[in-house]
Every structure is written in C-alpha cells, then in structure tokens.
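Let us work through a complete example step by step.
Step 1: write down the sequence.
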Amino acid sequence: MKTKRVIISLMVLCCAMAVKAQNDVAIATLQHGDNVSVFKGSSALASALAAASDQGGDVITLSEGTFTAATITKPVSIYGAGFETDNAKGTQLTTISGNLTVGKGDNTTLSNVHLEGFYLDGSLNVGGQYNTGPLENLRVVKVMAKSMYAQSTSSNTSFDQCIILGSFNCDTAGGASGIYDFNFTNCIMSSGTFRNYKQAGSSIVLDHCIFNGYHPGASNGSPFYNSHNNILRLRNSIYIKASGSATPYIWPSGSDIKNCISDSDISGFENCYQVAINDIFKDGENGTYSSNRTYELNPELSSSWIGNDNTEIGIHGGNGWSKVPSTPVVKSMQLGVNGGELNVTYEAETR
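Step 2: predict the structure and record it as tokens.
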C-alpha cells in the first residue's frame, strides 16, 4: 500500500506540474483514494477543501504560486512545494495569502490535519473563531508563517522545522480554554512572543528551537507577557532575551528550562549556559531569520553545548533542520500532446 501511495503521489505532482506548465497558473490537486481532481487559480485551495471528504484521508498538493487562504474544517493533509525558492535543494515557493484558520465552527472536534511546505503570508489561526471546536493532532511541518494565533482548546499539536516570523498570541477575549501539549521541535521563532496564555495547565514545549525574544521597540520586556499560568518547557534550545526591560528573563510560573543557551541569566536552571549574544552563532548575529543564515553554533564553544539527547543544542540537533518538504521531487519531465490527451514522461524520486 505504501508503494502505491508513493506512485499516486508522484502522479499527482507530475500532473500538477504539467497543468501548470500548460497554463502558468497555481494548481491544487485533490487526491481521494485513487481519484485525483485538479483545481486552478488563486481560489484552488478553497475549491479543493470544499471538495475534500469529511471523513479524512484526502491529500491536497499545491504547486508553486499563490493561493488565497481558506478555513480548514476537514481532516486533510496539505503539501506545498516549499516556503522558499532554492534551486540547489529543488524547492519552489508556495504562498498562501491571508489568514489560514484550522478548526470547525460547530463546537465539534477536528483531528488529524497535516500542513507542510508553504509560506503563509498572514496568521495561522489554531482553532476557529472564539473558542469553537477543539483541535487534536494538528501537525505543521516546514511552514513559514508571519504569526500565529491560538483561539480554541488544542491538544497534541506539533510544529516541526517551522519558522514563525512574529508573535504567537492566545485569544483571551474569546476565552480559549487551554493549550495542551503544544510541541515545537527544531523551529525558529524569529521575533518570538508567547502572550496571553492565562489558562491554568496550558503547556508549551520548545525542543531544539531558537526563540528570539529580542525585538526592537518591545512594549513589554518579557516575551511571556500575561502568560503566568502557562507551563513553558525549554529543552536543548537557544533563548535570546527581549529588549527594553531590566528583567527580560522573567519566566512563566512553573517553567522548566534544561540544556539551553541564552544571553540572559538562566543560571538557576539545569545545564544551561549564559553567553554573549554575538558569541552564540558562528556568524555573530542574533536569532532573527534570514534565508541565507545557517544558524550554526560558534565552533569555539559548541563542543560543550550538548543537549540531553546527546546532540548539539539548537536547530541542527535533535531531528535536524531542513527546508525541503516531503513531497516527491521531479528530476526531469517531458510533455507531449496526442490528440486531446496530454502525455507526461517523468523521472522522479522521493526525498
């Protein structure tokens, strides 16, 4: 069955590329079992979501190009071509424009949504408006988003190799009930703030991440403003303090920090290192995101910066760091027209 799924995925990807080559428009393909549907234009994502099954298991593959954001209310998997164009790695840029909301509006639970390989030019809204249906098992992989916003109860939510350019706030006005088991692994929070997580028992885990709390003009010194009930677990990560505060290292109550590097005072935590900001990374920069940065650690000090999993602290330890999504890559493709049929000959491989 796995081999069959890979073959179908390759066919879907090649069909999307073929249609795009013929029309030069953004393409979304919807795979439902052995059946494939093709949607064109900026509204293609919304059309594919409308046609997807409510029962789950459908896969939407997005070509390079720009798609208008939509609300995800079904258990689907969405794969883009990448969040940056990189010819060496074979990635293209898939952009979703606007705010992308994941969650139902009828107070029922939405489970098993997978998002991967695109740039979100807006906010990723985790949960529907004002504490509507809860989320379970949301997985976000290799996605770059301008910001994130938690709006409803969520559990077993994971972010892997993602880049969050702005803040990650919680909707206190709507009364979000809690954020349980929010796990970030090998992620970069470029101008990070976790704010308004006030519900007791909420928990956020950052493992092998870069959390850059330093952002010019911050109105509140702590990036954890109004999150006193949230439990923050920082593991094998790099924390860069916020500007504009005499006490930028105030942590939420119950925080648990282990095996981390910071330019702030984290001496009271287990196996942590306080280092000047310009001495953390090889390039001497802070934690803001740039596509040409590697975020390699300072080689003069990194030999001692080992996490509790015996890999180095930061995004290159743990499960590692890559910008390449898990969709197959097409190495070569030839198109031909025979009567009313479009023939596609291709060579492709899984990543």
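Step 3: interpret the result. The first helix runs from residue 2 to 23.
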